Amino acid sequence: MRPSADPADRDACDVRDEQPRAATAPESATLHQALAGTGGLDTLLRDLTDRAVLAVEGAEACSITVRRDGRLLTVAGTGGLPNGLDQRQYENGDGPCVRAADSDAEQHAPDLSQEDRWPTYAAYALSRGVRTVLAVPLAVDGETDAALNLYATTEGAFRGSRTGARAFAANASDAINAALRIERERASAGDVRTALLSRSVIDQAIGILMAQEHCTAQTALDTLRRVSQDANIKLRDLCGNLVARTTEGASDRRASQRR
């Protein structure tokens, strides 16, 4: 392997050579349209990697890295992504996408055959046909580390498109965060529905006990809570069983009367 130039010098050359993309608003609108039609966060992430390959000149494959439960993993990737490109970095604990996620700083390897920052990974990526890597941090709510990883088989593939990659990553972050908010709202709505159903069955059980024991609502609730604790059964489940038995008993009595 030939000695490589200093990474800072390489990046300086990249910036000088780069031509900024003129329009990002249509791209942003397209991403939000994708969000509106998405079937969920997983579908959106896969769609984003496909769109990144189309939007960033020179990109041939894309993946998204996120840290969850203390470890990095790939949550989405395009079909053209060679197996193991991200995983090998996670195993080594270093590489462009690992460093971008960990440091929140963009990582660019314009020619892996000249790369000395990650020699083990560079040799592996070259064996898989990858020559250039660009990893751009993603600002994802609730995730400590995330990155958009772009791959190409030609040297210097992203020298003229890094501004476009950054713009795409920023828009992708917005779309991902919006999807996360939607998922959280759906989860919250589900919690509310569960709470309402629980409240309904508890109220029914209180009414049944009041009628059977000729007691107040508070006394009935206290009784149910005591039985729940003594039997180590959730109050909701105890009340559900009481309501079900009472309903079945009433149905049996009506059937018997019709005979």
List the helices and strands and how they pair.
Blueprint: H1 7-17, H2 25-36, H3 41-55, E1 61-68, E2 71-77, H4 85-92, H5 96-103, E3 107-109, H6 119-127, E4 132-137, E5 146-152, H7 162-213, H8 217-231, H9 235-258
Antiparallel strand pairs: 1-2, 1-5, 3-4, 4-5
Overall description:
The chain is 59% helix and 12% strand. It has 259 residues and is of the alpha+beta class. The longest helix has 52 residues, at 162-213. Helix 2 packs antiparallel against helix 3 (41-55), helix 2 packs parallel to helix 7 (162-213) and helix 7 (162-213) packs across helix 9 (235-258). It has nine helices and five strands, in the order H-H-H-E-E-H-H-E-H-E-E-H-H-H. The relative contact order is 0.12. The model is unreliable at 1-38 (pLDDT under 50).
Shape call: elongated
C-alpha Rg (nearest Å): 29 Å
Helix content: 55-70%
β-strand percent reads 5-15%
Give me the number of helical elements.
9
Tell me the total number of β-strands. Answer: 5
| Low-pLDDT segments, ≥5 res | 1-38
What is the chains' assembly state? Answer: single chain
Mean pLDDT metric: 79
Strand count, sense and barrel status of the largest sheet are: 5 strands, antiparallel
- Computed structural class: alpha+beta
Order of H and E elements:
HHHEEHHEHEEHHH
Terminal-residue CA separation = 94 Å
**Which strand order do you get reading across the main beta sheet?**
2-1-5-4-3
